[in-house]
Amino acid sequence: MISVKGDILKVKTTYETSPNIALVKYWGKFDEEYILPLNSSTGITLSTEDLQTRTTITLTNKYKEIKFLLNGQPHPVSGRLKKILKFFEEKTLAALGEELVPLQEGDNQETKRKNLKEFLNGDLSQLKLKIKSVNSFPTASGLASSASGLAALSVCLFDVYHMKEEYDFQRSVIARLGSGSASRSIYGGLVEWTGVPHQFLQRKFETKNNEVQLSEQEYEQLSKLCIAKQTHNETFFEDLDVFVVAYSFESKEVPSTSGMLQSTQTSELLKYRALNTAHVHIAGVKKAIEQKDYNELARLVRLDSNQFHAVCLDTTPPIFYLNDFSKNMINFIHQLDSALEYHVAYTFDAGPHAVLLVHKNHTPQVLRAIYEAFSIADTDSLNSRAQQTLKQAMEQELPESIQKIIQTNKPKITTTPSYIIHTKVGKGPTKKN
Ligand SMILES: Nc1ncnc2c1ncn2[C@@H]1O[C@H](COP(=O)(O)OP(=O)(O)OP(=O)(O)O)[C@@H](O)[C@H]1O
Ligand SMILES: C[C@@](O)(CCOP(=O)(O)OP(=O)(O)O)CC(=O)O
Q1: Which fold would CATH assign to domain 2-431?
Q2: Which residue from 13, 34, 294, 352 puts its CA 20 to 30 A from 58's CA?
Q3: Which residue from 145, 251, 258, 349 has its CB within 8 A of the most atoms of ligand 1, so it is best to mutate?
Q4: What is the pLDDT of residues 193-223, one digit of tens each?
Q5: Which residues have any ligand 2 atom within 6 Å of their CB?
């Protein structure tokens, strides 16, 4: 939306986005600069109703320099973000200059006087960005705030610069340049992000230092190939609920970017995974979702998460993202299998928090089982949706088999989660103005 007030011009847009949690993990880059993934990955975008980034971008001649506020605090403009912003300035400012400007505040679109470039006396460089973003959930704590945040930036920037995609799925490519996993948050439902073709991986892995020389043109081609796209919309997940079971909100010791670089340089298992398993897991996950085979889905999602953490352990020096809480959760979920018709899928990113996919028939029981077995003291640590679910669970009798599992496991569980978010698979970014 373009508005004027006196000499001040503003082009403004707002979007809401949400984190995307990989069911088949991305871990390792073919190229650090273009953020080209060694393997394809697939993930679910969560609902903006429960975890949300709200980003407003204003392009205005009011300020002398860029302003970036994250959760109300000034935030540095990273090298990756600078590169993205340069791309928009170079590509689209000229086109934006042709947009018509309302005569004055309150004018409707019919009464326009001049184009934006004339309004600014021919000097489009007067326009500076103000980025204001707020996460409704903890930032930089392993809950994929960067995925949600960078996806929001990409969709807002396309909108504020009035830029059309030059090729399909370009929004995911721009988000990717900010953070790889952000490419998947550009769409709702299940989203697949394509990795570099195997012949390039083989070339990379055959060289001594895993360094392969490609031309600029080849990199550009690979960049357009490594797009993310929706494979299944959110309606495929109507039978499933999601719990984000967060352990603590401390920043992690090894950030994903440096962790995956270490793994790429040292782990043999990572090479095996990139060449042999990730794509098999993706095909299996898609088939299980289509066939509503939730036990197969749970099997594959657990397997892929555990393989990713095995790669972390196979890294020199080893990286440990799972802690006692994660291990307690993994053991407990496997115990629950015997009492549930549909098994629960668990997955862990580069941190200790668990993300669970639960069939809706079992949602209240599973939440109550976790609540009791992990000795959660009160419902303050549950989001409002989870509080309602727990209330519903407390009104029903728990099957004896689940009660037994709680009783035998409770004494062995030494950890307590700090927060539980009950959510669903979501529709993807939404424009708010
Ligand atoms: N809403 C946002 N808008 C723009 N950038 C954001 C936003 N939220 C987070 N970021 C960027 O992402 C960084 C945090 O990324 P980091 O990978 O450390 O944590 P995370 O994404 O929460 O965890 P993980 O990637 O392990 O799931 C922040 O310091 C900030 O630079
Ligand atoms: C474990 C993961 O969450 C890793 C995410 O890594 P990032 O996307 O945060 O890394 P960069 O591309 O370096 O920004 C798995 C996943 O989301 O697929």
Answers
A1: Alpha-Beta Plaits (3.30.70)
A2: 34
A3: 145
A4: 999 999 999 988 888 777 888 999 999 999 9
A5: 22, 25-26, 35, 41, 146, 179-181, 256-257, 349-350
ipTM of the prediction: 0.98
Q: Mind listing the pLDDT tens digit for each residue in 215-246? A: 999 999 999 999 999 999 999 999 999 999 99
pLDDT level of residue 159 (50, 70, 90 thresholds): very high
Print the SS3 string covering the chain: CEEEECCEEEEEEEEEECCEEEEECCCCEEECCCCEECCCEEEEEECCCCCCEEEEEEEECCCCCCEEEECCEECCCCHHHHHHHHHHHHHHHHHHHCCEEECCCCCCCCCEEEEHHHHCCCCHHHCEEEEEEEECCCCCCCCCHHHHHHHHHHHHHHHHCCCCCCCCCHHHHHHHHHCHHHHHHHCCCEEEECCCCHHHHHHHHHCCCCCCCCCHHHHHHHHHHCCEEEEECHHHHCCEEEEEEECCCCCCCCCHHHHHHHHHHHCHHHHHHHHHHHHHHHHHHHHHHHCCCHHHHHHHHHHHHHHHHHHHHCCCCCCCCCCHHHHHHHHHHHHHHHHCCCCCEEECCCCCCEEEEEECCCHHHHHHHHHHHCCCCCHHHECHHHHHHHHHHHCCCCCHHHHHHHHHHHHHCCCCCCEEEEECECCCCEECC
Residues with CB under 6 A from ligand 1: 53, 70, 133, 135, 139-146, 149-150, 152-153, 255-256, 349-351
For all residues of the chain together, what is the average pLDDT?
A: 94
Choice between 308 and 94, residue whose per-residue pLDDT is larger: 308
Among protein residues, the one whose CA lies closest to atom 1 of ligand 1: 149
Q: Where are the domains of the chain?
A: 2-431
Residue 71 CA, ligand 1 centroid: distance in Å: 11
Report pLDDT digits (tens) over 343-384: 999 999 999 999 999 999 999 999 999 999 999 999 999 999
pLDDT at 390: 98
Residue from 33, 139, 181, 305 to probe ligand 2 pocket by mutation (most atoms less than 8 Å from CB): 181
For residue 304, report the distance from its CA to the centre of ligand 2, in Å.
14
pLDDT at residue 6 is higher than 90: no
